[in-house]
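Cast an eye over this sequence plus tokens and walk me through the fold:

***
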Amino acid sequence: MLTRFVTSVILILFSSVFLLGLVSDSARAAELKTVDGHVADGGGTPLVGANVTVNMRKPMPDNSIRSTMWYDATDSSGLYVVTFGGMGGADWVAGDTIEIIVTKGTSVTKTVTCTADDQTIDVLWPYVIPEFGSATGLVVAAGAVCVLGLLLASRKKK
């Protein structure tokens, strides 16, 4: 009878430890916050290679930076992804202001209010960024140089 009691107690203890481990793992996962989005120019073309800085700012009137994550270069679709940890004061708190700064030559800033869930925040560059190096651009530039050269060559010396 005593052996059965000890076995039951040990089984309950191991079950409790196992369940506490599962709860703590899910609590840690709940503390993570992912902020992602796409960066595009004013024409909707993905902005490739842009640097993205994401700041978590404390609510007003403090507005100081609680934590910062960086994304080195947006991919071919303009995507960036950063993950913050430590909800409850460490890296982020619901109600913080998320400040996204996109830099590619110049900077564009967008701010939104932080929620408890992961957030997708797209950033639209305020103007269209022209594509240089296209075949059409090369033909037009070469043609302009030829015309200019012919005009200068055909001028008579006085």
The first strand starts at residue 33 and ends at 40.
